[in-house]
Design a protein that fits this description.
The chain is mainly β. It contains 2 helices and 15 strands.
Length: 203
């Protein structure tokens, strides 16, 4: 099943109804296109050998895993969170998070994205003013995928499970030979895009 890692996001559960068929807007979503002009040559590198991906992160950021592989298996976790320390500690960004979640799914990443988009387009009585953006094509360091922006709450199951969001987050879906990945972060958080501009698959 899916294991969700969340930081600075208040947990919660809710119920929803009335499914909506997904419609993919193939226009490039520039807000989700990870590009950066920052020099990352002195950044550290996180490598996940089991699921075949890596990314760079700046000094002061903390990479945390759920470490379900056991001690000594930190680089095989299927759920990674990057913490960003506040400005006053030295990093020129507000404290935010970037989450990377692997799922061994039989679906293509487009079908996987459409699945979760449909879940989140359903009416939700607890969050009647929730806003869900279009499902659009996105690019993460030349890796094609799909994504959408959402505020207030995010569905993870058809029965209404999910978690609340402190602000609008961008959810992006990509894949490699291992399976599907969900990446999410506060939509206006530039440091997340800077890190994702270094994200790449290693298998």
């Amino acid at each position: 099943g899916i294991i969700i890692a969340t930081v600075l996001i208040a947990g919660g559960y809710f119920f929803s109804k009335k499914a909506v068929a997904p419609v993919v807007n193939e226009q490039q979503n520039s807000l989700a296109t990870a590009t950066s002009t920052i020099d990352t040559s002195n950044w550290k590198t996180y490598k996940n050998d089991k699921y075949g991906f890596e990314f760079k992160y700046p000094k002061g950021a903390i990479v945390s895993s759920n470490n379900y592989g056991g001690e000594g298996k930190e680089n095989e976790s299927d759920s990674i969170t990057v913490y960003f320390i506040p400005k006053e500690v030295g990093l020129p960004y507000n404290s935010q998070t970037l989450n990377i979640q692997f799922e061994n799914s039989s679906l293509s990443f487009k079908s996987y994205a459409e699945k979760f988009y449909s879940l989140n387009k359903e009416e939700n009585a607890n969050f009647p003013r929730r806003t869900v953006g279009d499902l659009t094509s996105v690019t993460i360091n030349n890796i094609g995928g799909y994504g959408f922006a959402i505020d207030m709450a995010y569905n993870t199951t058809p029965t209404g499970g999910g978690f609340t969001l402190d602000e609008t987050n961008m959810f992006i879906f990509i894949e490699n030979s291992s399976g599907d990945f969900t990446l999410w972060f506060p939509q206006k958080n530039q440091i997340s895009l800077d890190i994702l501009s270094t994200f790449k698959f290693t298998k």
